Each structure stands twice: as C-alpha cells, then as structure tokens.
C-alpha cells in the first residue's frame, strides 16, 4: 500500500511506518531552487527501511545506503517539477521515522550597490543559515530519537522486571515443594522406624 502526501515546505514530520508498507511525501519544486532534507529512523529493524528521493520522471536523486538509519539529501532544480520522498519497510516491525525537507526560497535582490559587492556577504549568510538550520534539524531529530529509545528502554526494563518476578515465584514454589517432600519423607521415616 502506498500513501502519498503533498507538502509545499516541511519543518518536520514524525510518523510510524508499519511493517511492509510504503509512505511517500511529495514536494513541488520550483526552478533555480535547492531542495534539501534529512531523516532518522528508530525502532526495531530500523536498518530495514529503503529511503528514496526522486523526481517526477522517477529518476533517483537519492537512495539510502544499506544498513543505515539516517541520511541527508539535496538537489538543485533546473525546472519546475514534483519530487517524492518515500520510506518503504522491508520487514514486519513498526518503525518511527522523523524527517524534514524544504527548498531554498529565491530572493530577488534590490540594492543600490552592485551585486558583486554583496555577493560574498550573501554567500556567507546563506551558508550560516543552512548550517543553523542543519543544527536545528539535528537537535529535533535527536530529541525525537532519544524519546523513542527512552520508551523502548523503559519497556525493556519492565519486561526484565516481570521476568525476574516470575523466576522468583517459580523458585519459591519449587523450594516449597522440595521442603514439603523432605518433611513428609522425614515424617514417614520416623513413623516407619
């Protein structure tokens, strides 16, 4: 089953991917802009997800490497076209996926000075903006990932505690049975002697 959701610009999406399902998200790209994004996969079987980013002609712009749970992609657009980001689960486990993707806005410059004078400043500001956005995105990814792993750890601890309690009860029951049999054996030997 394939689900398609169209998004114009996305700060962050967090969703659960059921086993053997594929969810796709689309973004309408404009010419002379750059689309970029990143994703993180958490949960059991988090390395069993195929991530693809491709254009409207199904030409792959990004394919996730095997045995990875996170990645980044970017592409520069020459024409207006739709792009899709798809996540496909390759096993039966439910996974948590966090991703973001967006495109740079094209800004027309209006200044009294020549473009050449402001180009280095624009380049530095653009680079600083991208770096800050990457840091912001990574902080949110790791926050979500930490939350998911904390829940998984708490669930595992609860299961271990339940297992230990069951073992203690079984051992107490076996000790009681052995003590009962031993007492009956001693009483039987006293009566028989």
From TrEMBL:
Domain GOLD: 12-187
Bilayer topology term: Single-pass type I membrane protein
SMART domains with a match to the protein in the record: EMP24_GP25L
InterPro entries with a match to the protein in the record: Emp24-like, GOLD_dom
Listed GO CC annotations: membrane
Subcellular locations according to the entry: Membrane
Keyword Transmembrane set for record: yes
Keywords, sorted A to Z: Membrane, Signal, Transmembrane, Transmembrane helix
TM stretches of this protein: 160-183
Primary residence: membrane
Family: Belongs to the EMP24/GP25L family.
Database matches in PANTHER family: TRANSMEMBRANE EMP24 DOMAIN-CONTAINING PROTEIN
Protein name: GOLD domain-containing protein
Organism: Stentor coeruleus
């Amino acid at each position: 089953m394939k689900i398609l959701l169209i998004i114009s610009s996305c700060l962050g999406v967090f969703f659960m991917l059921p086993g053997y399902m594929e969810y796709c998200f689309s973004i309408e790209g404009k010419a002379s802009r750059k689309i970029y994004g990143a994703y993180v996969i958490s949960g059991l079987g988090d390395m069993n997800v195929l991530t693809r980013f491709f254009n409207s002609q199904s030409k792959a712009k990004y394919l996730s490497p095997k045995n990875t749970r996170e990645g980044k992609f970017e592409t520069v657009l020459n024409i207006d076209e739709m792009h899709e980001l798809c996540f496909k689960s390759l096993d039966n486990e439910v996974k948590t996926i966090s991703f973001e993707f967006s495109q740079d806005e094209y800004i027309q410059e209006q200044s009294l000075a020549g473009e050449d004078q402001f180009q280095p400043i624009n380049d530095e500001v653009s680079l600083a903006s991208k770096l800050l956005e990457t840091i912001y995105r990574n902080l949110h990814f790791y926050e979500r990932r930490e939350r998911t792993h904390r829940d998984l750890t708490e669930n595992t601890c609860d299961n271990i505690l339940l297992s230990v309690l069951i073992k203690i009860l079984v051992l107490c029951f076996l000790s009681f049975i052995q003590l009962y049999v031993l007492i009956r054996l001693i009483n039987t030997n006293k009566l028989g002697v």
